[in-house]
């Protein structure tokens, strides 16, 4: 099997009860992500880009279609129909997700948050601590921030912590939802270098970026989405 992920006829509708109106966010999306590939998705705000990623990660449950994932532990799984325990296990061990927004457990410091990501991926506590420190340094988070609760961080610091938490796992599948939105150009370069390294090491990725220049040299395929549908491949 060449693909790690195959999307078949994926649609997601939202029903607004007060307005008694159904909104179609993404419609009849189909594509495959081969192992070690990077697929980019571009389109205007509200076109349905993030909905596709969230249906893959299962924070949204697709209305119709299949999301077939070739898992390391259990073989081929339809993420639309998998039970919650399977989804939680895959998120911990195999599938990473980076968004613009930071979500951490209460009373968890920045370093503890990154260590937790490495532990979920199966590293020993010593390896997890070493990898966490390496990743925090890589993303230039000052050591005086490591033992602080990240709710006090700036937007850019929170996003760099998000990246460190997801990438410390070196996941088999990495989903990226505007991961460079509030970063300066130097940090964007760090992100691109690390994504390139992860790709060479075998991580398969799907990314949403508004910065088309950032995507150059990273993506094997780029799909344009408009009105919830893929309209072209670059």
Automatic annotation (TrEMBL):
Residues 5-234 form the ABC transporter domain. It holds the Pfam family ABC_tran. Signal peptide: none annotated. GO terms for molecular function: ATP binding; ATP hydrolysis activity; transmembrane transporter activity. InterPro entries: AAA+_ATPase, ABC_transporter-like_ATP-bd, ABC_transpr_LolD-like, P-loop_NTPase. It comes from the Bacteria. Keywords: ATP-binding, Nucleotide-binding. One of its GO terms (cellular component) is plasma membrane. This is ATP-binding cassette domain-containing protein. It comes from Diplocloster agilis.
């Amino acid at each position: 099997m060449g693909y790690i992920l195959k999307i078949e006829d994926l649609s997601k509708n939202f029903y607004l009860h007060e307005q008694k109106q159904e909104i179609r966010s993404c419609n009849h999306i189909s594509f495959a992500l081969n192992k070690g590939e990077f697929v980019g998705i571009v389109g205007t705000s509200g076109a349905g880009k993030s909905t596709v990623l969230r249906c893959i990660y299962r924070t949204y449950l697709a209305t119709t279609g299949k999301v077939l994932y070739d898992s390391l532990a259990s073989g081929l799984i339809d993420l639309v129909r998998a039970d919650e325990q399977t989804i939680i296990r895959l998120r911990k061990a195999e599938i990473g997700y980076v968004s613009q927004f930071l979500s951490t457990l209460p009373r968890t410091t920045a370093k503890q948050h990154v260590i937790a990501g490495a532990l979920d991926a199966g590293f020993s506590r010593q390896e997890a601590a070493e990898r966490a420190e390496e990743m925090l340094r890589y993303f230039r988070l000052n050591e005086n921030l490591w033992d602080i609760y990240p709710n006090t961080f700036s937007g850019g610091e929170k996003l760099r912590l998000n990246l460190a938490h997801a990438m410390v796992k070196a996941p088999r599948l990495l989903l990226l939802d505007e991961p460079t939105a509030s970063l300066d150009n130097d940090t964007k370069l760090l992100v691109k270098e690390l994504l390139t390294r992860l790709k060479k090491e075998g991580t398969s990725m799907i990314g949403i970026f508004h910065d088309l220049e950032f995507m150059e040299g990273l993506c094997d395929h780029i799909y344009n989405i408009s009105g919830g549908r893929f309209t072209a491949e670059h």
